[in-house]
Amino acid sequence: MVLVIIFVGALAPSIAPYDPDRLNVRERLAPPSVKHPFGTDHFGRDLLSRVLFGARTSLAVGGIVAITSLAAGAVIGCLAGYFGGMTDLIVMRIMDAWMVFPAMLLAMALLAAFGPTAANVVLALSIVYTPRTARVVRAAVLRTRDETYVEAARAIGCSPTRVLRKTIIPNVRSQMVVQASFTFAYAVLVEAALTFLGVGAPPEVQSLGALLDQGRPYLRQAPWYMLFPGLTATWTIVGLNLLGDGLRDTWDPKLTDA
Amino acid sequence: MGAYIARRLIGLAAILVVVGFMAFLLVHLTPGDPAAIMLGPEATSQDIARLRGELGLDSPLHVQLCTWFLRALHGDFGKSYYYGTAVSREFLGRLEPTLLLTALAVIVAVVTGIPLGILAALRHNSIIDQASMTLAVVGVSMPQFWLALNLILLFSVRYGWLPATGYTFVRDGICSTLRYLALPALALGLGQAALIARMTRASLLEVMRSDYVRTARAKGVRQCRVILLHALRNTAVDILTIVGLSIIICISGVFVIEILFSLPGVGRLVVGAVRRRDFPVIQGALVYIGGFIALVNLAVDLLYAWMDPRVRLS
């Protein structure tokens, strides 16, 4: 599922049947047909093409957020977990406080401070999801820190960076990737909600959330307008969640349900 | 237990201090002058200077921090520049719809989620299990506002059973309030139900494999007694955690839901404040909502310790 949507997002320019911005006033709010499989919007623009480009934006936002929050969270989590003591206590207290804010609220507050642009949405969401990753990484580092092979590496005089890179990170990598795939899913979801509320990226930036927002006034006359962007978003997020579950089950048999 | 409570309360205080600090820093994260941003491009330099004075932006940072904390301790987050009233008053006036909505949504989530999870766990690997878990993944993944729009389409556009938007306060009759809150609570709660079902199932499956359940079965206790008395009691701790989590996720969802259903609650106040960049209101929201969630977490942990003595001793 994820592959399909990434494929579609990457190839949007070449597979879209029409230019997503081409207006065709005569075909306003046309229902789905062979010519326009997803129907058209209030300017007569082809919805399939718009959904394809929207998915591209949403995926890009989610992907960048997953990678940046993973990197930042990994650094913080490794430092806190490996060094322990006061560093750990202070850093994790800050992370705990950071996490009491619901993701939506913190993202909105940060956007109010930074200003609503697409780049700031990515920045704000990365900040929101960093502590969650940091926590997972820290827990994983704590579990492996006292293993014999880590001690051995320390005993032969490896520097902390080397110990982390060579012995600890390979062992927590799987959990990091699992966490990143969930972050990806959440980021797509929250980005859509932010745009929908009109506090995210400006409407010129086509994303699935923007399409849903634009389709809302036409709920009665043209239900397909918000049906297809919503289905696409759900599809993407289901795929990402299943990917996360699958990866977790493969790498960590202890955590599986049955 | 006393020592445990004391330790947790200190932890809570520490979190609240950091929360306050973050809310304070928010204004200073803005590129440029926060006062100018709040007033918009048409403001004169006198207006900006006056607002800077009101917000205390001209004094040194540590002085600002101290005054801000002292006032926040009294619940004073300044005045909303848009409404011109105290931030705390704005919040109090909008508490009712938000609290009712959250409570109803949590009830919807618990009442549908837990039975679904139990059913899936008991008929493990059956069609019911597969179907409910598929439903759960889809429920977790669906954008809440999209589900809400579909509910509006179905229940108020197609059948006209329930009002799509609006709200009446409880003092004007609770029946009408509930009618207005039915769709929002469903929209908010069903997504959580999916999550609760998933977690209940996982927790119950683990318990069902334990030795004491096997022993109970072996000595001939009837199936429903095994489930109710032996298995469910031991998943209660997990379910409690899930309910706590669900309250938090519901609060996260009130922003979108309140906008969509035009409910005059805290969520709409905050979204409006973000659009207008009304910083005192946003700061208040961070502290109030963050504090509320920290309290929910604390309550869950204390109940947890009360139910399971191993927690408070470790």
Q: How is this structure best described in words?
A:
The complex is a heterodimer of chains A (258) and B (314). Chain A has a domain at 74-194 and 233-252: MetI-like fold (Orthogonal Bundle), CATH 1.10.3720.10. Chain A is elongated. Chain A has helices at 2-15, 47-83, 85-99, 103-114, 118-145, 148-155, 160-197, 208-215, 224-251. Chain A contains nine helices and no strands. With 314 residues, chain B is mainly α. Chain B contains 14 helices and no strands. In chain B, helix 6 runs antiparallel to helix 7 (127-141). Chains A and B meet through helix 3, helix 4, helix 7 and helix 9 of A and helix 1, helix 7, helix 8, helix 9 and helix 11 of B.
Describe how the helices and strands are arranged.
The complex is a heterodimer of chains A (258) and B (314).
Chain A: H1 2-15, H2 47-83, H3 85-99, H4 103-114, H5 118-145, H6 148-155, H7 160-197, H8 208-215, H9 224-251
Chain B: H1 2-28, H2 34-39, H3 45-55, H4 61-73, H5 87-93, H6 95-122, H7 127-141, H8 144-158, H9 174-208, H10 211-218, H11 223-260, H12 266-276, H13 279-307, H14 309-313
Helix pairs in contact in B: 1-13, 6-7, 6-9, 6-11, 7-9, 8-9, 8-11, 9-11, 10-11, 11-12, 11-13, 12-13
Kindly list the characteristics that best describe this protein.
heterodimer; A: about 260 residues; mainly alpha; MetI-like fold; 9 helices; B: about 325 residues; 2 domains; 14 helices; about 80% helix; globular
